[in-house]
Design goal:
mainly alpha, flat
């Protein structure tokens, strides 16, 4: 297993683009040295208690609106607002850099 770490200043760099470029450069360096790196593999293992696995799926009821409502979660939005620091470096607000 190979582990790599790094630090990215997000003041002028998009984190996802920097991460992708780091993976690209690491892969290129390993390929140049002859290491064979497999493609990423993700495995999901879903486990359920036997009683739940045997029961038929429950249809959505009107009380389950939270599962289908795409509106923002008010509690989450309030938490984000409490965490904001008015220092001019708000990365969550478009154009606030």
């Amino acid at each position: 297993m190979i582990r790599a770490g790094g630090w990215v200043s997000q003041d002028g760099t998009d984190f996802d683009l920097a991460r992708g470029e780091a993976f690209r450069l690491l892969r290129h360096a390993l390929d140049a040295k002859g290491y064979l790196v497999p493609e990423p593999v993700h495995r999901l293992r879903l486990e359920q208690p036997e009683a739940e696995a045997a029961a038929p799926p429950r249809p959505l009821r009107p009380a389950d609106h939270r599962l289908t409502d795409p509106a923002p979660d008010a509690a989450f939005e309030a938490m984000v607002e409490r965490e904001r620091v008015p220092d001019g470096r708000d990365l969550l607000t478009p154009g606030a850099r």
